[in-house]
C-alpha cells in the first residue's frame, strides 16, 4: 500500500480502537454541546489526539486540521491532514452502530489520500489519487444505476441550520417519490464511502464541513463518481453542500434539486466557516 496511506490507516485503526473500547461506557462520558444539536465527547477528543500523534510522528513537518482541535502543526507547509476522529457522534452516543473515522491528506489544496474506517464492521475504505478506491483492499466502483427508479439514495438533514429546512424538504419530497428508498444513516463520511462502494446510488446533504467530506470525495472520484455542490459546481468545500452519484444519476438528481435552490444554497460560502482553516 502507498506509504502515506499506510500511516493514515494506522492512525484510523488506532482511533477506531479507542471508539469501540468506549462504547460500553457511553453513559459515563463527559458530553459537551458545541452548538445547536451538535455534541462532542471525550472520545472524539481522545481519538483525534491519537490520530494527530500517529501522523505527526511520521510527518513532523505537516499541518493538521482536526474537527475538535482546529488547525495545528507547521504554519508553512503544502501538506494538511483533515481529520474527523468520529463521524456520527450522535449515533455513537446513542449506541446506534453507524459511525466512522475519516482522514484525508491535502497537498496544495488537492485531496491526495483518503481513509474512512468503520471500526464496528472493520471496513476500511481507502483511496489514493490516480490509484483507485478500495474496500478492504478490493477495488470499488460507484453503481451503474442510471435513473431514480430503483435507486437507493442517502442524505442528511439540515438540523443545525434551520434556514434550509423548507428547501431541503422540497428536494426530499421530489426525490423520494421516484426512488426505491432514502436513508439518513447519520454519518456523512460513511455515506460517501457507501456511494463509492455502490451501496448507495447517490447522496446529498446541506451544511457539511471539510472533515466530513474530504476523504469521501476522493473515494467517490476514484470510484468513478461525480461530486459537486447542489448547484452542480465544484464549490462543495466552500459551501458545505454536496451532491454525488455516478455521472448519469448525478445529472438527474441535480435536475430535481435545482428548482429548490435558494440564494443561500447557491452561495459558495459557508457562513460558519473559520477563514483561518
Ligand atoms: C455529522 C454527521 C452527520 C451529518 C452532520 C455531521 P459529526 O458529523 O456526519 O451525518 O448530518 O452534518 O456534522 O458531528 O458526527 O462528526
Ligand atoms: Ca462529522
Ligand atoms: Ca466528528
Automatic annotation (TrEMBL):
Which cofactor(s) does the record list?
Mg(2+)
Keyword Metal-binding listed:
yes
| Highest taxon of the lineage | Bacteria
CDD domains assigned: IMPase
Q: Which PANTHER family match?
A: INOSITOL MONOPHOSPHATASE (PTHR20854), INOSITOL-1-MONOPHOSPHATASE-RELATED (PTHR20854:SF4)
Sorted alphabetically, which keywords does the UniProt record give? Hydrolase, Magnesium, Metal-binding, Transcription, Transcription antitermination, Transcription regulation
A single GO molecular function, which one? Answer: inositol monophosphate phosphatase activity
Protein name, per record: Inositol-1-monophosphatase
Protein family membership: Belongs to the inositol monophosphatase superfamily.
Q: Which Pfam families match?
A: Inositol_P
Query: E.C. number, please?
Result: 3.1.3.25
Keyword Magnesium attached = yes
Q: Give the signal peptide range.
A: none
Q: Which gene encodes it?
A: suhB
Name the reaction it catalyses.
Answer: a myo-inositol phosphate + H2O = myo-inositol + phosphate
Could you tell me which SUPFAM superfamilies the record lists for this protein?
Answer: Carbohydrate phosphatase
> What is this enzyme's class at the first EC digit?
hydrolase
